[in-house]
Amino acid sequence: MVANRGPVSYARSPSGERITRRGGGGLVTALRSLVAHHEVTWIASALSDEDRVVAEEHEGDAFDETWRDDSPYRLRLVAHEPRAFGGFYNVVANPTLWFLQHYMWGLAYAPDVDVGLRDAWFNGYVPVNEGFANAIVAEIDRRPDAAVFLHDYHLYLTPKLVRERRPGARLTHFIHIPWPETDYWHVLPAHLRVAIHEGVLANDILGLHTHRWRHNFLRACADIVGAEVDHAASTVTHDGRTTLVTSHPIGVDPAELEELRNDASVLEQERLIAARRPEFLIVRVDRTDPSKNVVRGFRAFALYLDRHPEMLGRVTLLALLDPSRQDIPEYTEYLAAIEREARSVNERFQRDGWLPVDLQIADNFAQSIAAYKQYDALLVNPVFDGLNLVSKEAPFLNERDGVLILSENAGSHEELGEWALTVNPFDIDGQAEAINAALTMEGGERKRRLEALRACMREHDLAAWVAAQLADLDRVS
Amino acid sequence: MVANRGPVSYARSPSGERITRRGGGGLVTALRSLVAHHEVTWIASALSDEDRVVAEEHEGDAFDETWRDDSPYRLRLVAHEPRAFGGFYNVVANPTLWFLQHYMWGLAYAPDVDVGLRDAWFNGYVPVNEGFANAIVAEIDRRPDAAVFLHDYHLYLTPKLVRERRPGARLTHFIHIPWPETDYWHVLPAHLRVAIHEGVLANDILGLHTHRWRHNFLRACADIVGAEVDHAASTVTHDGRTTLVTSHPIGVDPAELEELRNDASVLEQERLIAARRPEFLIVRVDRTDPSKNVVRGFRAFALYLDRHPEMLGRVTLLALLDPSRQDIPEYTEYLAAIEREARSVNERFQRDGWLPVDLQIADNFAQSIAAYKQYDALLVNPVFDGLNLVSKEAPFLNERDGVLILSENAGSHEELGEWALTVNPFDIDGQAEAINAALTMEGGERKRRLEALRACMREHDLAAWVAAQLADLDRVS
Predict the structure, then answer these.
(1) Which residues, in sequence order, are CB contacts of B271 under 8 Å at separation 6+?
(2) Fewer CB in a 10 Å sphere around the end CB: N or C, chain A?
(3) Nearest CB neighbour to A108, from listed B184, B290, B408
């Protein structure tokens, strides 16, 4: 398993002892069953200072760790040169690639592909990918039959670097964000966009969440590197090698969610929400990422209140937002825009202790889960989104026959659109109408939709997603 | 011939007499030979107050006019309701469609598809297109065998409106701007993007400047309206009708350019430029449109000066910019950004009467032609551009073996890229290097490239473009 972020990170307690922090998040959850049943080595960047100390203690080699459930696995932390890592993470990966892959650059003004980006690429993204490739080669040499699972947009160059040195390696790579269409890749000069596509075409398998991103990837490979594409077989042949391109939307873990439902901290948060909530509660849970489209969501809510004065005092939009990537100017600016817009809506409508927009900027997992149970409408309106796990986890846990309002540009829309109210993320008017439709939907219809969503999630769960990856690997082996 | 802008516009002189202003521009020039050899009726919007008076005098019917060369043609001015025209032109066509089709929205913040856009669509774009459709139907009824040539992004709904009423109409539509890929069309809600694609698929022929935009159009038709696409035949079948999709890059008129070369006003402007110019002259000629990428061009020039102190005082970037669409906030903001950037470069580098960036914000046709003759390097670096006529006209007239620096995203790059220095429009570093390469290129190589460009333009001239359109019409008839 290879990803920039590992399943644990180390720190020092005030008394000087080493603390192990086990992260949550989709990918770590996703791989629980894999770790339980297979011999897994996880290769990740050393992110914290203490991670670097641990990496040094093991001279960069892998060491034994245990999963939450005590399953053993090996962890290998790659300690990158800090300046290289800064360029890799805060310039190339975010915002450059992230913004590009979510169609978010305002191209009249940004980005500038300048000396700074060039430096961050050649002295940041390239050496960090080389660091990962070195670690993978070392692990392959230890276990030549190992399958290598790479993850996401941090590692586009790694597969080719490994392939050049170990032609027989079994490489599969899952991209969790959208793959944009050809023209938009022209935000990068030819040598960069070619390097990215050739990098990932060194994999045996390239996985994406949806047919839409898979389709875009196939077309981009033909357009950008002149690869031979078989759309029916979903394969790309380039440089004498063939890559299978798959689409498997990641699922939720029903058992884990059921455990969380009655977790003590969740129940405590739920009591707080229930005590404060008015008659209707609209919920959104996101990182404060510009792709999540929080500002337009607030505008749509204001337009809705404008059109429905009978709802003043009776409905709150609870926005639980995890502050995200605040080292990057585009992200601090967007967080400020979120706060401005919330204040503007509240200044206009609030009265008698009723707050129209209840904005909570914090990383509070238990509060999010509690809100999932309590919503009457869930607003998921991203500009573009690879999948969007909130749109799956929240309906699974909801206990009020809440209605899902879902952007047509969220990857999950391919699976869930049928039972959601579809909105265009730029369409303020349409989102205001969807809020009204959600809050006035007849009870039987609400229940029918929510049950259909849950049935879909039980069928296409996390275990099925992992099994599909393994089956793909068997197919190409 | 149907286009928002006609070949003439009317005004009143100070003494109260009617003045006829004959416009220039690619399309009017392009159709000179057509008007000379065919019976042409031109349908256009009444744009000026006097246009509206003229339209009223003829009760909206066509009347006789003459071309510059005295060829007769009929003109039919459609007087739209002013508020409808405002929404049509200043909200829907620009910036919404223009920005969308040039990939220029910064999607985290804009556009908002709000009540204003909805109103501009239903009470602006739709009725203006209906006005054009009514005029076309009236003209078809007069001459049922007439071929109807529609132009550009102002008239996407018109073909279907005509087709519904006159199923046998012969309709061909040329789009002079890029056709973006499917995902980017999602900036518009489904009903709008579907209406646009279904609107133009009512044509018998849809023309674009390049293979790239043609390719995007074919894919978008399959993705957005589920049309049946035959890529080999370049046809789209939808609703039981088949549209031929062509790509014909528009050419220049060698005879007209040769006339201009020695025009008295051009020679006067050329003397002024020659008297002021330093050893090397870089020229750009554009509208002040955000898609033209003027700001990054100035940044690249500054980076070039930074790297080549030996060139201080020896090279000027002459930017001749026609102020464009200043009723639209995005355009006034971009003009301000242009002026700020020019000032910033000049404040940093200017000395002893040498101005690094000579910025002229004016509509001065003779000055532009004179600059075409005088450049050592021509900078054409648009973010995206349907074709870009400057990249053709200027090399044709250049008299100093000047080098063309050309964006890979300009439509003309498909034809001219081989003899240009290709740049990525976002790549400041690459543009600075291209400026250096252009100004240090060996004389024989410069001459060879410019002659090849001219040969290409003579072969694929304007007459060939018009002939190709007529041949396409014969093909589908």
Answers:
(1) none
(2) C
(3) B290
**In chain A, where the domains are located:** 80-250+463-476, 254-459
Among residues 191-220 of chain B, which lie with CB inside 8 Å of chain A? 212, 216, 219
Contacts of B111 in chain A (CB under 8 A): 426
Angle at B107 between CA B103 and CA B113, to 5 degrees: 100
ipTM for the assembly = 0.95
How far is residue B388's CA from residue B280's CA, in Å, rounded to a whole number?
Answer: 24
Give the model confidence (pLDDT) of A405-449 as tens digits: 999 999 999 999 999 999 999 999 999 999 999 999 999 999 999
CATH of A80-250+463-476, one of 2.40.50.200, 3.40.50.2000, 3.30.1330.30, 3.40.50.720: 3.40.50.2000
Model pLDDT for residues B383-414, shown as the tens digit of each residue: 999 999 999 999 999 999 999 999 999 999 99
Say which DSSP state A313 is in.
T
* A115 at B interface, C-beta within 8 A: yes
Distance CA A193, CA B387 (A): 23
Element containing residue B338 per DSSP (H, E) = helix B329-349
* Cis peptide, bond prior to residue B323, ω within 30 of zero: no
Residue A323: CB atoms within 10 A of its CB come to 15
Q: In the structure encoding, which two tokens stand for residue B305, read together?
A: 């000066």
Q: What is the pLDDT of residue A24?
A: 60
Tokens of A467: 């099994």
User: What is residue B378's three-state secondary structure?
Assistant: strand
pLDDT, tens only, A185-238 = 999 999 999 999 999 999 999 999 999 999 999 999 999 999 999 999 999 999
Q: B207-244, pLDDT tens digit by residue? A: 999 999 999 999 999 999 999 999 999 999 999 999 99
A104/B108 touch (CB, cutoff 8 Å), yes or no: yes
Half-sphere exposure of B230 (CA within 13 A, CB side): 10
Whether A107 and B187 lie within 8 Å, measured CB to CB: no
Three-state secondary structure call for residue A409 = coil
Band (A26; pLDDT cuts 50, 70, 90): low
Averaged pLDDT score across all residues of chain A:
96
If you measure CA to CA, which chain B residue comes closest to A104? B107
Q: Does B115 reach chain A within 8 Å, measured CB to CB?
A: yes
Report the interhelical angle of B126-142 vs B158-165 (nearest 10°).
40
When pLDDT is averaged across residues A388-403 and rounded to a whole number, the result is: 97
Report the alpha-carbon angle A45-A50-A55, nearest 5: 50
Which one of B183, B191, B332 makes the best mutation probe of the A interface by having the most chain A beta carbons within 10 Å?
Answer: B183
- Count of other CB atoms within 10 angstroms of residue B443: 8
Three state DSSP letters for A349-404: HCECCECCEEEEECCCHHHHHHHHHHCCEEEECCCCECCCCHHHHHHHHCCCCCEE
pLDDT in tens, A80-108: 999 999 999 999 999 999 999 999 999 99
Find chain B residues with C-beta within 8 A of A114's C-beta. 299, 303, 428-429
Q: Which of B102, B113, B219 has its CB closest to that of A429?
A: B113
Q: What is the pTM of this model?
A: 0.96
The CATH T-level fold of domain A254-459 is: Rossmann fold (3.40.50)
In a 10 Å sphere around its CB, with 0-12 CB exposed, 13-18 middle and 19+ buried, how is residue B312 labelled? middle
B155: how many CB neighbours lie within 10 A of its CB? 25
Task: Say if residue B26's pLDDT is above 70.
Answer: no
What average pLDDT score do residues B452-476 get?
93
